Amino acid sequence: DAKTTQPPSMDCAEGRAANLPCNHSTISGNEYVYWYRQIHSQGPQYIIHGLKNNETNEMASLIITEDRKSSTLILPHATLRDTAVYYCIVRVANYGQNFVFGPGTRLSVLP
Amino acid sequence: DAGVIQSPRHEVTEMGQEVTLRCKPISGHDYLFWYRQTMMRGLELLIYFNNNVPIDDSGMPEDRFSAKMPNASFSTLKIQPSEPRDSAVYFCASVGLAINEQFFGPGTRLTVL
Predict the structure, then answer these.
(1) Residue B1 — very low, low, confident or very high, per pLDDT cuts 50/70/90?
(2) Cross-chain Cβ contact A45/B48 below 8 Å
(3) Which of A111, A50, A55, A54 is nearest to A82 (CA)?
(4) Cβ–Cβ below 8 Å for B100 and A41
(5) Does A94 touch chain B (CB under 8 A)?
């Protein structure tokens, strides 16, 4: 799997948009970008994934640059419950393949 | 569906004792993963199964660790004998045929004294 680089921590004010960046400069053409988050003491939770087009669901939006070397996860209106570690993962969309979790970004949403 | 179920949620044992962690994947999912998470090493894959068959166990730390999946609805991770350095949160996750995402269980927090 291609490696990803994320900032170790970020702060965001409650109610504002949280923009979490991820660099994946060596991503291959058949690799997707996945985002998971882990709220304290819980198992990781799937958020969103995409290949090249921007994606949006009820939780977040995923913006992937045209060259696919980086992406941004956007939480449009962050709440205190969004405080978590966010993991950016790149992998081929073969459901049997392992997800390799890096250290992620610890997002703190502040009141 | 109740999601991935793990038991026990917490386990405290003494060094040298055998520990067995249990996992019930989501019904219909044919891949099952065991992870370990510590502050120092983060989230590490230990082993994963496809249709009850172990596919990759390269993450299993040593012979003290063993995992089985006797049927599609149950898996165990056993540590014998346990050591203090095995203290961690152990997660089980499952994936289905038409789904790209892993569903994680709540984890088992293991403390070996």
Answers:
(1) low
(2) no
(3) A111
(4) no
(5) no
Within 8 A by CB and 6+ apart from B11, the residues are: B19, B21, B108, B109, B110, B111
State chain B's mean pLDDT as an integer.
93
DSSP B72: T
**For residue range B62-98, what is the model confidence (pLDDT) as tens digits?**
899 999 999 999 999 999 999 999 999 999 999 876 6
pLDDT value, residue B61: 87
Question: Of A46, A102, A103, which is closest to B102 when you measure between CB atoms?
Answer: A46
- Residue B5's SS3 state is strand
Tell me the C-alpha distance between A69 and B14, whole Å: 48
Neighbours of A29 (CB within 10 A): 7
- Chain B residues whose CB is inside 8 A of the A46 CB are 101-103
Chain B environment of A41 (Cβ under 8 Å) = 89, 107
pLDDT score, position A20: 98
Residue B17, min C-alpha distance to chain A (Å): 25
Q: Which of B97, B93, B30, B85 lies closest to B61 in space, CA to CA?
A: B85
Q: Which residues contact A22 (CB under 8 A, 6 or more apart)?
A: A4, A5, A6, A33, A35, A70, A71, A72, A73, A88
Q: Is A60:A75 a contact under the CB 8 Å cutoff?
A: yes
| A59 residue type, one letter | M
Between CA A26 and CA B75 the distance in angstroms is 36
